[in-house]
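Handout, tutorial session.
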Amino acid sequence: MNIFGMEFKVEKLEKEKGLALYLTANRNFYRYSWEDYSFIAIELSENEKFGSVALQKQKSIYEQHFSSDICYVFTCLTNQQRDVLVEKIIPFICFPNHLYLPFLGIMMSNRFKKKKRVNVEKMMPATQCLFLYLMYNREDHPIKKSFAAKKLNLTKTTITRASSQLVEMKLIREENHGTEIYMIPLYRGKTLYEKALPYLVNPIQKKVYVRQYNSDLCFLSGESALAQKTMLNHPKIQEYAIDKKKINQDELIEIDVQWENSDNVVLIQLWKYDPSLFSVNGVVDPISLAMTYKDNYDERIMGELETYLEEYEW
């Protein structure tokens, strides 16, 4: 990581022994090293309430324990908080605009991040998309936010909002490694799904009956998908999902299914996010499929869906 023209190596430290619990709880510790010099950066939780007097006292304890210069890392600061920290000579980093490191250098800006209120009632489509990406990721390591944004074709602003929602829903946590932000699920597998269940939404925006429609952008969904995975009988009318942004809806000429031969009809689900991101072998992913039935009370359907999810390898 580049600080004042020096390329620092950033190493995350394990929780330090010999420190009181209040000095380590919900805090991450990093060693920044450049040539023969290093200092310790202590990242405070975004939800932690802090005061300058307490931080000043803790700074002395940390310096003695690590035998090193130390600084605090904040995700956001107000103008007043920054000025008080500087007044009390408490080193800190608040990327990308504020670096107050008296032992190394100082960089200040009049730009401040505002902490926005986050809706935690239901996931936005982009949030659900990000959640599914993290859910289905089998690798046990933090996911770089910029990497996820590229994979999901989301803008920096959208991925930030989506990640913030998941943090507020207590499904993931974020870690700052230099200028990069990493996302870490707080649970794994089925437990993560169950914790997220109250927030998940139906991905379907609209359903349209049309005459036969062939497209590589369509994926089996609804009863057609469930029949592929369970003992459910295949429906007379095939059901497909497609990203609403990837189709010209004017091309979908809606028909009255009661006046058509069912052999010539398909049901198109227009989704709020791209089903292709998580589909396997032409079938939509199990969580999204389950959410399409969130308000369904058909015992036959719900029984097969429950069996499918129970047997799924989380």
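The second record follows below. Compare its token runs with those of the first.
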Amino acid sequence: MQTTRPGVHPTAHVADGAILGADVSIGPGCVVGPHARIGDGTVLHANVVVKGDTHVGPGCELFPFVVIGVRPQDKKLRTDAAALREQGWLDADGEWLGKLRIGADNELREHVTLHGGTPFGCGVTTIGDRNMFLAGSHVGHDSTVGNDCVFTNGAMAAGHCTIHDRAILGAMAGVHQFARVGRYAMIGAGSMLSQDAPPFGLVQGDRARLIAVNLIGLKRSGFPADDVAVIKRVFRKLFWRSGALEDRIAQARAFADGHALGEEILQFVESSDRGVCAPRGRPAPGEEPMERV
């Protein structure tokens, strides 16, 4: 029988084994599973579900109908429960045990969903600190989200994605499996990002294209004018010029001359597995050039 705990509404269900920090507030209708840990001062409003091997850091706020840590949306996980249990992915009661690690001071608005790791990825989904997940946004299994990111209403990152610090996903934006979004990148509303978005870039469209440096985001974040100038010049040499990618990288690296932000962009491009989204007006690999009319 459940024992009443301080800060837990009488209609909430907090399973035996769940660990609650100091000054945690669990609202009416919430469900907290036996493997969950909730950090100091975190608030769960009404009808929040926290399942699986999920750790929520201190100072977070989860609004009504947030659901985190349940079994990820992967058809491969619907079969052979006995094998998954033997491998340690299910407990005796069928509770999913993929890891979900959420940092401090995150805000999860209504109907946000975050899924933990799977045996087909790194095994853990990681969310950093001070992120805002607006209503209906989603992060898939085995993904990583950095610090100070914003997922606007309905924005979604599929499984195995990496979203770096201070990235912004506009409303209804979608990030394809295994794609990356660089630091301070802005993904426009309604975009479908099937390739990597470079740091400091502004991308939009279906399929998303690189259209500019994210100057507004850099200004709001207080980047010095000299740094912004370097980023703009590296973008110009790397993305707005023709020629082989290797040649453009060499030209941009010669200009950047070891500048940290310039090198960050270049290393991001060089390490891309899916390729970086093509600049607007230039055909992506495999596409035919558009006819002008």
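Points raised in discussion: Residues 285-293 have pLDDT under 50 and may be disordered.
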